[in-house]
Write a structure and sequence with these properties.
38% of the residues lie in helices and 19% in strands. With 522 residues, it is of the alpha+beta class. The strands form 6 sheets. The protein has a 7-stranded antiparallel beta sheet with strand order 9-10-20-12-16-17-18, with no helix packed on it. It has a 5-stranded antiparallel beta sheet with strand order 11-19-13-14-15, with no helix packed on it. The chain has a 3-stranded antiparallel beta sheet with strand order 2-1-3. α6 (150-176) packs antiparallel against α7. The longest helix has 43 residues, at 183-225.
C-alpha cells in the first residue's frame, strides 16, 4: 500500500474512505464504520483517541474529493496496464462493430468485419452512455411521478369509496323489496363488498409501492453498472436498456382496480333467484344454440339455456355519461358528474357479460332519441360492430355509407350468431333489427371467432336515456326451434357432388401418361 493510499484509508476498515465524516476531535472515518462502531460500543467516542463527539459529525468534502480523484486515477492506471486484447489476434481492441455489437481489433476489421460499419471504442461508449442517460432521465421522471402520485391515489381511493357507498345504498334498497328472510343474504353481500374495497385499496397501494421499488432498483443497478470498464459496459448495455424499458412498461392502474359494481348490483334479484326460484322475475327460456349438420338439432332436440340479463358496467362509463343505479340505462350529461370515474378508457359504456360462439340477442330501447350508437365490440376493444343514428341518417360503424329508414325504431335488437360462408369458413355476423317489428335494418358479416363480443351503448349529446330491455321470458319452444341453414345441413352432400363431378370430368376429358402426368385430350 502506498503512502498516499495509507493517508486516504479509514483507520477502522483500512480501505479508501467512503463518505468520510469528520469528528470534533479532528479524525475522519467512513460513515458506515463510525456508525457501526458507535452502535457496538454504545457511546459516541472516537475509535482512535476515545474523545466523545457530542455534535453530529460533518461530511469531510475535501477528503471525499481527494479519495474519488485517487480512485479514478487508480482505475485509469489499471486500465492502461490491463488493456483489453483481442482473443483471436492478440491486438489491442480499439474498434466497435455496429452490426455484430461487439468490440474488435484492427485485424478483425480487415477480416471477419470487413464490410461492417465500425466506430472507435470511445465514440461507441459515449453514444451508448448518452442513450442510457436519456433512458435514466425518463425512468427518474417516472419515479418522481410515482413518488408524487398521492393526488391520483387519493382520487382513485375517493372514487372507490364513493362507489362503495352508492353500491351499499342500492344493495339495501333492493333487499328491502325482498322478504325478511333475505336479511342474511344482504349482510353477506355487504361484507363481500367491504372486503373487495379493502382488497382494491391494498392492490392500488401495492402497485404503486411495487413500481417505486422496481424503478429504484433498476436505476441504482444501472448507475452502478455504468461505472464498469468499457468492455463490460458494452457487453451489459443491451441488458441495461432492456431492464429500463421493461421497468417503464409495467402496467399502471386500470379500470380493474375499481369496485366490480356489476358483480354486486348486476341483476341482483336474478342472482338471488338461484336460491329463491319463486321470487326472481326472470325465468328460464329457450335459446337456439349454433348447430352443425348431423347433430341433435335435426332431431328437434334443443338445449334449455339460462342467461343472465344484460347489465351495464359503470366502471367503463366516461364522466359525460350517467349510468342509472339499477345499471339498466345510460344518459348523456351536459355537465360531468360530481364523482367521475378517474380510470375510464373509452367513450362508450360496455356490458357486464360477453358473448362467445352461438346465438345471442339483446335489445336496447332508444325511444325518440335521434342520436345514439349500439352494437358489440371484440374483447379487447379492436373491431367495433355498431349501428349509429345521427338525426334522420343511419350508418354502420364499419362503413361510411349513410341510409334512411321509413320508420325510426323505438328499440333496436342486436343479434350475434355463427354462420358458414360459401367457402365453408366459420364466421360470426352481427344483425340489427327493429325491436318492435323484427325488420332487419342491417348486418355486419365475417366477424372473427375465438374472442368474446361485449355489448356497448353510446347515448348522443342531449338525447334521452338508452335502456336495456329485460330478457323476454315468453319465448316458446317453436320460436326457439330454428333449423340450420341450407349450406350447414347439406354441406357434406355438396362436397360429395363436387368430387363426383371431378371424376366425371377426368373420365371424359382427361388422361394420364405412363409417368402419371395429367393432360387434357385433344
Amino acid at each position: 500500500m502506498s503512502l498516499l493510499e495509507d493517508d486516504l484509508s479509514c483507520p477502522v476498515c483500512t480501505e479508501v474512505f467512503r463518505e468520510p465524516l469528520l469528528l470534533s476531535c479532528g479524525h475522519s472515518f467512513c460513515r458506515q464504520c463510525i456508525t457501526d462502531h458507535w452502535t457496538a460500543s454504545g457511546s459516541r467516542s472516537c475509535p482512535l483517541c476515545r474523545q466523545l463527539s457530542p455534535q453530529e459529525p460533518l461530511s469531510n468534502l475535501g477528503l471525499r474529493n481527494a479519495c474519488e480523484s485517487y480512485l479514478k486515477e487508480r482505475r485509469s492506471e489499471k486500465q492502461q496496464r490491463e488493456e483489453p486484447k483481442c482473443h483471436i489476434h492478440g491486438e489491442k481492441i480499439q474498434l466497435f462493430c455496429k452490426i455484430d455489437e461487439m468490440a474488435i481489433c484492427s485485424q478483425c476489421k480487415r477480416d471477419a468485419h470487413r464490410y461492417h460499419k465500425t466506430q472507435t471504442l470511445q465514440q461507441s461508449v459515449r453514444q451508448r452512455k448518452e442513450k442510457l442517460k436519456a433512458a435514466l432521465r425518463s425512468a427518474e421522471k417516472t419515479l418522481s411521478s410515482l413518488n408524487n402520485s398521492a393526488t391520483q391515489e387519493a382520487e382513485v381511493s375517493g372514487y372507490i369509496q364513493f362507489q362503495t357507498l352508492q353500491t351499499q345504498k342500492m344493495l339495501k334498497e333492493e333487499f328491502k323489496k325482498l322478504h325478511q328472510f333475505l336479511k342474511k343474504e344482504e349482510e353477506g353481500r355487504i361484507a363481500a363488498l367491504n372486503r373487495e374495497e379493502q382488497d382494491k385499496r391494498g392492490t392500488i397501494e401495492r402497485i404503486i409501492q411495487g413500481r417505486i421499488r422496481s424503478l429504484s432498483d433498476v436505476i441504482r443497478e444501472v448507475e452502478e453498472e455504468m461505472k464498469d470498464d468499457d468492455i463490460d459496459f458494452l457487453q451489459n448495455y443491451t441488458s441495461m436498456m432492456s431492464r429500463i424499458e421493461c421497468a417503464l412498461l409495467e402496467p399502471m392502474l386500470c379500470s380493474e382496480s375499481l369496485i366490480d359494481v356489476p358483480k354486486h348490483l348486476g341483476n341482483l334479484k336474478y342472482k338471488v333467484w338461484k336460491n329463491m326460484k319463486d321470487v326472481c322475475p326472470y325465468c328460464k327460456y329457450w335459446t337456439p344454440s349454433f348447430f352443425t349438420p348431423l347433430t341433435l338439432s335435426e332431431a328437434g332436440i334443443f338445449p334449455l339455456v339460462f342467461l343472465d340479463p344484460f347489465a351495464l358496467n359503470p366502471n367503463t362509463a366516461p364522466p359525460c355519461f350517467s349510468v342509472s343505479d339499477d345499471l339498466t340505462s345510460v344518459t348523456s350529461c351536459v355537465h360531468p358528474r360530481d364523482n367521475p370515474n378517474p380510470l375510464y378508457r373509452n367513450c362508450m359504456v360496455l356490458g357486464n357479460v360477453g358473448y362467445g360462439d352461438g346465438v345471442h340477442t339483446f335489445t336496447i330501447e332508444v325511444g325518440n332519441s335521434r342520436h345514439w350508437t349500439v352494437g358489440v365490440c371484440l374483447e379487447p376493444l379492436s373491431l367495433v360492430c355498431g349501428l349509429k343514428r345521427d338525426g334522420d341518417l343511419y350508418r354502420l360503424l364499419t362503413s361510411q355509407v349513410m341510409f334512411k329508414m321509413k320508420a325510426n325504431p323505438k328499440a333496436v335488437r342486436v343479434k350475434v350468431e355463427d354462420y358458414y360462408d360459401l367457402w365453408f369458413q366459420h364466421w360470426r355476423k352481427v344483425s340489427f333489427f327493429d325491436g318492435k317489428t323484427d325488420y332487419r335494418i342491417a348486418e355486419i358479416s365475417r366477424v372473427p371467432l375465438g374472442r368474446r363480443l361485449l355489448p356497448f351503448v353510446i347515448p348522443g349529446e342531449g338525447a334521452g336515456p338508452l335502456r336495456v330491455v329485460p330478457a323476454d321470458v315468453t319465448l316458446t319452444h317453436e320460436q326457439a326451434e330454428q333449423k340450420p341453414s341450407f349450406i350447414q345441413r347439406y354441406r357434406l352432400g355438396f362436397y360429395f357432388v363436387l368430387v363426383l363431378l371431378w371424376f366425371v370430368f377426368l373420365y371424359y376429358y382427361g388422361d394420364f401418361d405412363i409417368y402419371g402426368d395429367f393432360f387434357i385430350n385433344k
